[in-house]
Each structure stands twice: as C-alpha cells, then as structure tokens.
From TrEMBL:
This is Phosphoacetylglucosamine mutase. Its cofactor is Mg(2+). Belongs to the phosphohexose mutase family. It comes from the Eukaryota. It comes from Kwoniella mangroviensis CBS 10435.
C-alpha cells in the first residue's frame, strides 16, 4: 500500500514535522546515558536494565521502520536477558519469518541506540528512513512480549512510547509475560496468511504442541514423570499453561517456579547453571526427586529457549548431563531411521544432517560420522547454525548449551505430504515425520518444544535416560577464560577451530595437542571483552586440564605476556 496520491505536499510535510516532534518528545523523556556504548548482537541488546530505557524507545522506532519497509508485515519485539542475572535485561527484534532480525539491520539498531542527543537521533532516523526507502505512510504491525524480570514493565513503557510516536498507522499486540520462543511462534503465525502454521496466540501455540505430541505418543502414554527446573523464570508460567492443555499423557512436575521472588531468576538453577557447573541445582539435589531409579529431569533457562536433561547414575549416584550434543545425536539418529522407514522414492529421498560448533564434544561428532550422518561445523552463534541447517532436507542443530532446533525444508514437507506409502510401516513413519515437523518450533530454540521432542523420541525408542546416555561417552573437557591486552590480534579461521594469527601460535597448539590421547584444543577471541577462551578435551580429565593449561600458557606467549 503506497501513500495516498491526493495528499498535498503541505499536508505531508506537516505530518512529517509532527512525527519528528513526537520523536523528540520521546527522546527527551528517554535520553541516552553518557559514556555507554550499545551493540546489537546475536542476542539483541543486553546489559543492566537501568541502562536500557533509551534503547527500548529507539528499538520501538526501528521495529516500526522495519514493518513499514516490509509493507506492514508483523515484526516481533522480545524484552528479555535470557540466562543473565536478574538485574540485567535486553531486547531483540524478530523478523516476519519468526527468525532473528535480518543481520543487515543490526547496524541500524546500533546506530539509533548510540545517538547521543535528540537532534542526532532525529537526523539518524530521517537518514535511515530515506536510505532504506521506507514509506512512513505505510501501516505497521508489531507484536511484543517480556519475561518476568522486575524491570520489564518500565522498559515496556519506553518501547510503547516508540510505537506511539507514529500514531494510528501502527497496530500493536501485547502478549504480556511469555517465553521468547512463543513470541517467535506468534510472529511467524501472524504472518502466515495460509493459516496452516497455527493460530497466532499463546493458546494456538499450546494447542499445536499438544496435538502433535499426542499424535506421536499414540497409545504409549502415560509416560514416566519428568521433573522440570524452570529457573524461576517465565518458563514456569508457560509450562503450567501448557500442562493444562496437554493433560496427563506426560506427568510434568515443575520445580523452581518462584517467578515473583526477588533475586530468584537463574540463581543456582536453570540450564546455564547445570551446564557450566556440571551439577544438579541445589534445590533439585535437596528435594531428592531423582533418587528413585529411572527418574530424569531437565532445566530451562530464564526465557525458556535452552534445555538440558540429566539424571543420577543408578548404582554410583553420580550426576550425568545430557546436553545439546546428546539431544542432537539422539534426534538426528531417530529422524534418520524414520526417513529410512518412510521408503520415499529416490527422487524425494531426504538427507538428515547435523550442524555443530567447535564447542561440540568430539565424541558426538565421531559418533555421528561413524553412522553416516553428515556433520557441518560453523562459527559460534545461532545465526550461523540456523543458516547451515537450512542447507539440509532435515537439519538438526543444537549448541552444547542446549539451544537448538530442527529445520524441515519446504520441499521435504511437500515430499512427505505427497508420498505414496509402500506399507503400514512406511505410512506410520511418514505420519510421525510430519508430526515432528509440527511439534518442533522451527523458528528458534524452544525449551518446551525441545522437551517434548526428546520425550517423544525416548517413548518411541522405549528408552530411559541411561539408554539415551549409553550411545557415546563425552570426552572430558575444560573451558578457560584468558585475559589478554588486545583480543584483536587473535584471528580464528576454519569455523573457529584454528588460529590464523598470531602467526606460529596454531603450530604450537597442535604440537601440544599431540602430547595427549585424543587431545583437541582451540582458541577463540571473545566478541565482547578483552579475553580469549581456550577449549580443550582429551581422554582423561587430567589430560584435558593439562592441555588447557598448556594452551593457556601459549596464548599468553602469543599475546606478549611472557
């Protein structure tokens, strides 16, 4: 829809002046703090909540620009800081596909947020609108949500102020408190004009997930109970709402659900705590819920887009972690088996592939390749994983931290829907593959969806956690943070598995690796602070530690500290 041809130049100029005045009023109400620099990265903006009001106002402006540029397509805005401590918050934009903001727009977000004065903001806004060829008379549509952080409501006010300056041309939907993946789902569903993706509401999300899960479980339920650590975050609310839709086919017992208790969010609980500490959350430990043999649990992170599973060894009582690598391997192997059983004709034969980063445990990569599942390694960051997964017919990606999903290519779905089953087994496999494509939130990593994915695969395999864990043994590994005077001298290549610079350092790292059985190590510069991260793995814990320390010394040598 273009601007009205009957609108006089004088009227248009008057409307534009009113818009700039409204922006000026908002900018004066939410001025940028001095000596703070903002950068829009993979997770959007994220820092202390007290530093964010000006950013939220400007993100409101950018979200409207993005929607108007896309002729009124709905843009999502999520206010969250995920697994960060409670005093932090953040904001990110979601494109109409339900995926992250187009990377070419990240610099626009950064530019707007760093304008030091009202006049510079208006100048940058005007330049952007002209440069991006945005028709400001176009309609705009925004859907937005936030997590349980105490700072959320005030930041939402600043965001809404950014929408309001455009007047009646902007239509908004406030989802209130909900998870990041649900916001992604609603954004994608709102833009799907066929209606096939699902109803664009929280209820639509729950109904879609429950329906697909029930199809997959069939008469196998009720399943054994699952204990879910909700990180005292928004996942607790979403899970409770979902349970009421799902019924008793999967007995779910939520833990750490104190969403209103000050300081509780992500404190000594959640997926990040479990993964980094390699231990049960103290609250789960003291509750003894895992003491009964065969019991398993999982942890969401603060905004419910990551999940890790775990259990206690039946005889030793030791903690056993089932992280993103373990999820990816089990899911890829199972979907690969279903594709074989589907017996699609040669023209439509589908390939299942896995995408990992250098942080993936070497044992998982070896296990997959030994079973003819192709593996692609990409640099760290969800956008790299997501794009690489799109190159497979069915692409599985999970970071070791538990963030991931499965992507079904459009042609794969069409092939499954049009297939002529050769037998009852073939028909069943096709039905299940289509149900998995509905169960999985393909827009983004989703703890609740991934929880159901894992439970469905376990039910089909007839496995408990120990059988899942038995596929391969993780190599012991160590991650060390090394502060350096200048991280920019460290330049990684080969999907961050090798160092190109400083010259000669990679050769020394490889010499160190050869001294340890199954030794592997890489050095990756941080994207945000003056440090590098050293990852090392080897056959034993002692060897992994020694390799990490040896490479740490080499990094210090390479940065001129020794």
């Amino acid at each position: 829809m273009s601007s009205s041809p009957t609108k006089s130049p004088t009227k248009a100029a008057h409307e534009h002046a009113l818009l700039l005045n409204s922006i000026a009023e908002g900018a004066n109400e939410y001025p940028k703090p001095e000596h703070v620099n903002y950068t829009y990265g993979t997770a959007g903006f994220r820092t202390l909540a007290t530093k964010l009001p000006s950013v939220l106002f400007r993100v409101g402006l950018l979200a409207v620009l993005r929607s108007k540029r896309l002729e009124g397509a709905t843009i999502g805005v999520m206010v969250t800081a995920s697994h960060n401590p409670e005093p932090d918050n953040g904001v990110k934009l979601v494109d109409p596909s339900g995926e992250m903001l187009d990377p070419t727009w990240e610099s626009h977000a950064t530019a707007l947020s760093n304008c030091p004065t009202t006049s510079s903001l208006i100048s940058t806004f005007t330049t952007l609108a002209t440069h991006l060829r945005v028709d400001l008379h176009q309609p705009a549509n925004i859907v937005y949500a936030y997590d349980t952080r105490p700072s959320g409501p005030e930041l939402i006010k600043a965001l809404e102020k950014g929408f309001e300056v455009f007047g009646e041309s902007v239509k908004t939907v406030n989802l209130g408190i909900t998870t990041t993946p649900i916001l992604h789902y609603v954004t994608k569903a709102t833009n799907d004009k066929t209606g096939e993706y699902g109803k664009p509401t929280k209820e639509g999300y729950n109904q879609k997930m429950a329906s697909a899960f029930k199809t997959l479980i069939g008469n196998r339920g009720p399943l054994s109970p699952l204990y879910v650590d909700c990180a005292n975050g928004v996942g607790a609310i979403a899970l409770q709402e979902f349970i009421s839709t799902l019924g008793d086919i999967l007995p779910v017992h939520p833990l750490n659900t104190s969403t209103s208790e000050k300081g509780a969010l992500n404190h000594l609980c959640g997926a990040d705590f479990v993964k980094t500490k390699q231990a049960l959350p103290p609250s789960v430990q003291s509750s003894n819920v895992l003491s009964k043999a065969g019991t398993r649990a999982c942890s969401f992170d603060g905004d419910a887009d990551r999940i890790v599973f775990y259990y206690l060894h039946e005889t030793k009582g030791t903690f056993r972690l089932l992280d993103g690598d373990k999820i990816a391997v089990m899911v890829a192997m199972f979907l690969g088996d279903l594709v074989v059983k589907a017996k699609l004709d040669e023209e439509h034969n589908l390939q299942v592939g896995v995408v990992q980063t250098a942080y993936a445990n070497g044992s998982s990569t070896k296990y997959l390749t030994s079973r003819n599942i192709p593996v692609t390694c990409v640099p760290t960051g969800v956008k790299h994983l997501h794009h690489a997964a799109q190159r497979y017919d069915i692409g599985v990606y999970f970071e070791a931290n538990g963030h991931g999903t499965v992507l079904f290519a459009d042609h794969a779905i069409k092939a499954l829907k049009s297939a002529s089953p050769q037998s009852p087994d073939s028909a069943n496999a096709i039905k299940n593959l289509l149900a998995f494509s509905q169960l999985i939130n393909q827009a983004v990593g989703d703890a609740l969806s991934d929880m159901l994915l894992v439970e469905a695969v376990l039910a089909h395999r007839g496995w408990g956690a120990p059988e899942w864990d038995a596929g391969y043994e993780d190599l012991p590994n160590r991650l060390v943070k090394v502060e350096v005077p200048d991280r920019s001298i460290f330049v990684a290549t080969d999907a961050e598995r090798k160092l190109q610079y400083p010259q000669g350092l990679q050769d020394k790292i490889e010499e160190a690796m050869k001294k340890y059985d199954m030794g592997r190590s890489f050095v990756r510069p941080s994207g945000t602070e003056d440090c590098v991260r050293v990852y090392a793995e080897a056959k034993t814990t002692a060897e992994a530690d020694n390799l990490a320390f040896a490479v740490t010394d080499l990094v210090k040598w390479g940065s001129g500290q020794t």
